[in-house]
TrEMBL record:
Coiled-coil segments on the chain, per record: none
Origin: domain of life: Bacteria
GO-annotated molecular function: glutaminyl-peptide cyclotransferase activity
SUPFAM superfamilies linked: YVTN repeat-like/Quinoprotein amine dehydrogenase (SSF50969)
Protein name stated in the entry: Glutaminyl-peptide cyclotransferase
């Protein structure tokens, strides 16, 4: 495996994927020929899909599928070459439907598609420091206009809340306290609505941006946890503690797609708070002093910000992990903080 030295250390905690993990067919009549399968593939590779016919059956045709999408068919038992350039990173589930003598049988396997992008180590410069409420267990952070919105969790019996405030002074303009049974998570603002997730309750809330009145409570349509949230102006993206970033239709709150986040050949789990910045997704990795910059189409980590230097400015002993990213398009600066931190940092980023 390739190793990216310092970058791997910064995101240490990157869960390494199982190498050469193939899933054998469920029948013994036909199986995928895995002798030519590579340990890992990238989007520049071709995949040789071929079938073992150990019982020497006369094959009429084979239909090949990747992730349940038909990718080709052949008369007889001939293989096909499949280009991986348009596939999402992560496991590719392979299936072959083999027709022979008026019958058919299925063979299955899988291969792993990883990133060939070497992440860039990014630099940051602190522009300003502002006070941050040390009672705020930050889960979501977002700008709208010049106003900061923050969603918090509720450890140690405190209530979660959604708050709108002046980031320069800390003055609270409006606040909604969640019922004690809910642990607040990520937040994002789209089309004059505020969307907020909860952690393990599998529900989210939608509020009117101007009045802060709750419009709707919605149920998750997947068996996932609610973590971070952001949007690209059309769709909402959210995380679930794994390597996945889900894509949601804001109109019906249904998940319509997802990507798997990889740094090189390593899967990055515990993707947390999200922010959409200039066409990329910036994300905290839970319990890591780093921010990963992710390509929202492929899932490849393209850049890494080592934020460990911020810890020396935090004075309160109860400060928890780095979490919270908000982009202010007016100032073109990024605001970051952490759970129960006493400081909100305004930074600029460069290569």
């Amino acid at each position: 495996m390739k190793k990216y030295n310092l970058l791997s250390i910064i995101l240490l905690g990157m869960t390494l994927s199982n190498c050469g993990d193939t899933k054998k067919g469920e029948n013994t009549l036909f199986t995928f020929d895995i002798t030519n399968f590579k340990e890992k593939y990238t989007q520049q590779d071709q995949l040789n899909l071929a079938i073992n016919n150990s019982n020497s059956k006369t094959i009429d045709s084979i239909v090949y599928y990747v992730n349940d999408v038909k990718v080709g068919s052949k008369k007889g038992g001939d293989p096909i070459l499949f280009e991986l350039k348009d596939q999402k990173l992560g496991y590719q589930n392979l299936k072959a439907l083999v027709y022979y003598g008026g019958e058919n049988a299925e063979a299955t396997s899988r291969v792993e598609l990883v990133s060939n992008v070497k992440p860039k180590l990014l630099n940051y410069k602190i522009v300003n420091k502002y006070p941050h409420d040390t009672m705020s267990f930050t889960e979501g952070l977002e700008f709208h206009g010049d106003t900061l919105y923050e969603s918090t969790g509720n450890p140690e019996g405190r209530k979660s809340y959604l708050r709108k405030y002046d980031y320069k002074t800390g003055k609270v303009y409006n606040q909604i306290d969640l019922d004690q049974k809910y642990f607040g998570e990520g937040v994002t603002i789209l089309n004059d609505k505020i969307y907020q997730l909860t952690w393990q309750s599998k529900v989210g809330f939608i509020y009117d941006l101007k009045t802060f009145k709750k419009i709707k409570t919605f149920n998750f349509d997947k068996e996932i946890e609610g973590w971070g949230m952001t949007n690209d102006g059309k769709y909402i993206y959210q995380t679930d503690k794994t390597e996945k970033i889900w894509k949601m239709d804001p109109e019906n709150q249904k998940m319509i797609d997802y990507i798997n986040v990889y740094s090189g050949d390593s899967k990055i789990k515990s993707i947390n708070e999200l922010e959409w910045i200039n066409g990329k997704i910036y994300t905290n990795v839970w319990q890591k002093d780093a921010i990963a910059v992710v390509n929202p189409t492929s899932g490849a980590v393209e850049g890494i910000l080592d934020m460990s230097g911020l810890k020396k400015f935090i004075k309160n002993a109860d400060a928890d992990v780095l979490n919270g990213i908000a982009y202010n398009p007016k100032t073109k600066t990024i605001f970051v903080t952490g759970k129960n931190w006493d400081t909100l940092f305004e930074i600029t980023v460069s290569e």
